Amino acid sequence: MCVQVDSKDTLFPYALKHVEGYLKNNWNEEATKTVVTALREQAEEDKKAEVEGVVPIPTGDSEDIIPEIVKNVEWQMSLDRKTGSLKTLQGLVWAKGYKDGSIKGHVYDDVQKAFEQWTENGRKIYIYSSGSVDAQKLLFEHSEQGDLLKYLSGHYDTKIGAKREKESYTSILKNIESSPEEALFLTDVYAAETKEENGGTTNGKRKIEETNDDVAEEDKAQVYPNKK
């Protein structure tokens, strides 16, 4: 549905470049205070767990705190971490970019047409992603094809569970009041589909194009085992 490389080549670099400016310009906002506290708590947990390279976040004046937050964010992103506090801060930075037009959410050309057809036929569409719910909404609201949020009935992120755990899909089905037979789960991650099928929670379907460079090679190999 969305190009994975867009996150790697656009969103993540944007967050790194603008996180310091966001913090300076929005330091007194409640959302900023909340995420700074969460980042500090995460850093303290990492320190207790003796995570290598952790950057502590001090208390005090913003002039002392912001540079350390930036270092912490750079460290976490260099490790491709998915902590809740990091994703929240990234989402806040991206929100500014989406709203001022600096960022547009990229979706494949057939997405809007498919959304229209499915909803016209009475089907409900939900998004489940490792990206936060807020980030999902921003992407679809500010997509290159316009506002696509109107087609979506709900959003889920890893707060409901990890994508490779069958309990996550069971929880989603319960939340949307659907039986496994009524739901169709679409993914380009082979391991997620396998976990789902083994758990018997939904009818997993996968579409992976050989030419799609955004899909991991090991996943392509599972779909096209005889291709060289």
From TrEMBL:
GO terms for biological process: L-methionine salvage from methylthioadenosine. Transmembrane segments: none annotated. Gene3D superfamilies: 1.10.720.60, HAD superfamily/HAD-like (3.40.50.1000). It holds the Pfam family Hydrolase. It comes from the Eukaryota. Keywords: Amino-acid biosynthesis, Hydrolase, Methionine biosynthesis. InterPro entries: Enolase-ppase_E1, HAD-like_sf, HAD_sf. The keyword Amino-acid biosynthesis applies. Residues 195-228 are annotated as: Disordered. One of its GO terms (molecular function) is acireductone synthase activity. SUPFAM superfamilies: HAD-like. PANTHER family: ENOLASE-PHOSPHATASE E1. This is Enolase-phosphatase E1.
